[in-house]
Amino acid sequence: MENEAATMVQELGGVAHNLSMFDLFLQADIVVKIVMIVLILASFWCWAIIIDKVLRFRKVTQQSDDFEQDFWSGGNLEDLYRRVGSNPDSPLAMLFSTAMREWLRSTEKGIDVHVHTGLQARIHQVMRVAIDREVERLEKYMGFLATVGSTATFIGLFGTVWGIMNSFQAIAATKDTSLAVVAPGIAEALFATALGLVAAIPAVVAYNKFTNDLQKIITRLEGFAGEFSAILSRQLEQN
Q1: Mean pLDDT of the chain
Q2: Among 103, 105, 82, 85, residue whose Cα is nearest residue 94
Q3: How many helices (H) and strands (E) are present in the chain, helices listed first?
Q4: Alpha carbons 238 and 103: distance in angstroms, whole number
Q5: CB of 142 closer than 8 Å to CB of 210
């Protein structure tokens, strides 16, 4: 009895020794290894995107706050246009710069400002294009987060199924159902699932947060576009 217990302890000790994450990877079937590598790379890439988006959205919010403070300070719009330049980094400043460029191009050519319907339409159109362009830049790589969030779990599940199949094959080959035979395959399978969840959960959470943040930025851009259009319209009427 004591000998059997000692044997079991040694067996369990050997199994525990071989169930570290690195050992699980080395012992895994080639298909499960590929699944693990894909999920690990996807997880790293997701975190790189998440960090980049957090910094980018924070910077956009700060730049928008600074620009709106300048814009509503009551200064001359042409002076502000010269300060922000023709290609500013801030989406809000870019929207302003695009509209001002179209405004100055039209008025400097001596277009009859009393016929302002066409000019208003053009300014509205260029601001719409500018908003779409800025949103496209901010949305970059968010599709990857959505893809990883929706597929990583299934990819991990595929590795799980494959690992369990290997476990059953090992049992059939050895005709031994002991823990030493069953545990490695089951552990490989669960490890693949865990990697899938590690990749999917941050991707889903980050995608939902960034989608919400992006919608706030879009609302802010569209609000500014409407207000700036009204200012230019009043300017045309005064002329």
Answers
A1: 83
A2: 85
A3: 8, 0
A4: 15
A5: yes
In the numeric block, which tokens belong to residue 139?
A: 């949305």
Residue 89 phi/psi, 5-degree rounding, is -85, -25
Rounded distance, CA 163 to CA 13, Å? Answer: 22
Per-residue tokens: 85: 């330049």
Phi, psi of 88 (to 5 degrees): -70, 160
Contacts of 7 (CB under 8 A, 6+ apart): none
- Give the phi and the psi of residue 176 in degrees, each rounded to 5: -130, 120
The overall pTM is greater than 0.70? yes
pLDDT in tens, 87-125: 788 888 999 999 888 888 877 766 555 556 677 788 888
- First CA to last CA across the chain, in angstroms? 104
pLDDT digits 0-9 by tens, 151-185: 999 999 998 888 888 778 877 777 777 777 677 77
What is the Cα Rg of the chain in Å? 30
What is the rounded CA–CA span in Å between residue 126 and residue 124?
6
SS3 content of the chain, % helix, strand, coil (to 5): 85, 0, 15
CA distance 1 to 202: 49
